[in-house]
Amino acid sequence: MSDLRATGQVGGSIGAGEPVKPVDPMETADPAETAEPVQTGEPVETGDPMGAGEPVQAGDFAEMGDAVRAVGRLWGVGLGPGDPELVTLKAVRLIGAADVIAYHSARHGRSIARGVAEPYLRAGQIEEPLIYPVTTETTDHPGGYRGAIDEFYATCARRLAAHLDAGRDVVVLCEGDPLFYGSYMHLHKRLAHRYPAEVVPGVTSVSAASAALGRPLVEGEETLTVLPGTLPADVLADRLAAGGPAAVLKLGRTFGSVREALARSGRLAEAWYVERASTGRQRVAPLAEVDPAEVPYFSIAVLPSPAAQPASRPALARGAGVGVAVANGAPGQDPLVAAMRTKGEDGSVRDRRQAGYATSHRKTAENWSEAATVAAGGQATSRAAGEPRRVAAVEAPGGLDGRPRGAHDEAVGRPHGVPHDGAHGRPHGGADGGIDGGGVGEAGGGRGEVVVVGLGPGGRAWLTPEAQDALATADDLVGYGPYLDRVPPNPRQRRHASDNRVEAERAAHALELAAAGSRVAVVSSGDPGVFAMASAVLEVAGADRFAGVPVRVVPGLTAAQAVAARAGAPLGHDYCVVSLSDRLKPWEVIAGRLTAAARADLVLAIYNPASRARTWQVTAARDLLLEHRAPDTPVVIGRDAGRPGESLRVTTLAKLDPAHVDMRCLLIVGSSTTRVVERHGRPVVFTPRRYPA
């Protein structure tokens, strides 16, 4: 078999991959020049900052000319009711061009606003999570609930003012419309008189709920009344008794009193309930039939225009599809529309086009769906193994003034939470039936913790949503310097970089910070549990003084998985993972494991194959394997997978040249069944699932 090579391939499909776009990595010395990394596992990175993106130039913004503007501009950007496709074009452009992205967040770090905006973020942006201190009106703050909230917004305003004073443009994300029960208004009132400020409106949940019902809210001379569900039941009843179309927002813990008010006003029979409008878990039902225990905060009561009553009531559509109310047997119904409808497993009518929409948009809606499950008091549902979570990136047409900018990096969806109704707690700032306002999650404990975070082997596209959550909410970041460089800067956070040979000390430092009350993220390349920091942290955490410090591990994509995906599917059957580094175990142990794996006909993923100070192991390993493997056994040499300048070489065991291998490489040695084929001019390696009898 000839020595085949493919370089610079990216993309998920096997075959035609696009060339890697050149990005200048931050150059750092190869740690292997001085010493062998201890338990680093993944090939040592060259310090390319994760998602560095393009530097923001002064000329990119309006009213600047060729001079640097003295202060930045504040934007309150509405995101709509939940569907990322309902974000306006202007909002997309501003989100992608801003220097700083701010968003309200729960204490556990999840943010619905960021989840909706995720496809439009640009790598390298500074992120400012505005974490609510309370979620209910119960607080021990001397000023009570209002005092706690006022202090929170004053602190947030100071943080954003520091960016604006430095000339950075700040976009504050807001679910729904920023000035329609939105939390942004509290920042606007504190900052708009000091800095240039603009509000970008968004689609409200009232509009989304009307669309879900398929019924006009108002017609002709009718007047729409919008009421917060937090009003006393007698006040609500009086206002509803006046008649006319209405919408009642902020349900959740208020649902009982809202339902009572509707009954007292004689309007319960005409009220409809819409939950999580426009999202993948949208639900529509007659309000009188709704169980109060199942009502999340993001729901709305709608009394649509009586001028256009349907011939029959809308059917409840729910489940895997995007729930929409459809009129059964309405006169004048388009036969094509009727043909598109089908019965769901629960007997409800579901539009097949909507089911298709749900399938194609699960990548975007699923973020909200999982969060909504948590909001309802349950646990987020795990997706099937291998189901993608990617959201297609949208390239914004320009900077904050519409001038052309570089293409935005692709982003990955992430699972952000929504308010946890829990003991009927509600967030301040109000959200209506969709996700208008600044929704937050349940309040967590105030003590610190250590989260060991896997960054994956490449850039932002391979950083998991859970890892992004952990990084965004940390007070302190601890890790090997080049790995910390991959995390975008955040002025709110403290960084503690260290050498790659002091893992125990690094772990102890992280635990000490957490013991003092900080939320600490310890970063590792690849997966933190594969030759990396997780074991070091857990080992040190066994000391009595750290017994009370919580430690959790957030997995990451491994180098073995990344190289395998670039090559095809060489890990398609049984395989093992071995490190050739002999700093923590003698070579005799390594040789014994290589021999055992070769005899067992396992595919091998080989980490830490060589360094500048340690070059002989590749040759020794090759010779050991050749004692039990055929000379034409396929071998994949992956270097810097998922990073600028990545390369992939496919060769054979007999032709494996140590000169092509260094510390930034990972080797995959096939089994007796591993095959190599050519597709679209490049080699594709795979190991069949079936094994010969």
Automatic annotation (TrEMBL):
Signal peptide: none annotated. Residues 73-288, 450-656 form the Tetrapyrrole methylase domain. InterPro entries: 4pyrrol_Mease, 4pyrrol_Methylase_sf, 4pyrrole_Mease_sub1, 4pyrrole_Mease_sub2, Cbl_synth_CobJ/CibH_dom, CobI/CbiL, CobI/CbiL/CobIJ_dom, Precorrin_MeTrfase. SUPFAM superfamilies: Tetrapyrrole methylase (SSF53790). One of its GO terms (biological process) is methylation. Pathway: Cofactor biosynthesis; adenosylcobalamin biosynthesis. Keywords: Cobalamin biosynthesis, Methyltransferase, S-adenosyl-L-methionine, Transferase. GO terms for molecular function: precorrin-2 C20-methyltransferase activity. Pfam families: TP_methylase. Residues 1-57, 344-365, 396-443 are annotated as: Disordered. CDD domains: Precorrin_2_C20_MT, Precorrin_3B_C17_MT. Residues 428-443 have a biased composition (Gly residues). The keyword RNA-binding does not apply. Residues 344-354, 402-424 have a biased composition (Basic and acidic residues). PROSITE patterns: SUMT_1 (PS00839), SUMT_2 (PS00840). Belongs to the precorrin methyltransferase family. PANTHER family: COBALT-FACTOR III C(17)-METHYLTRANSFERASE-RELATED. This is Tetrapyrrole methylase domain-containing protein. It comes from Sphaerisporangium melleum.
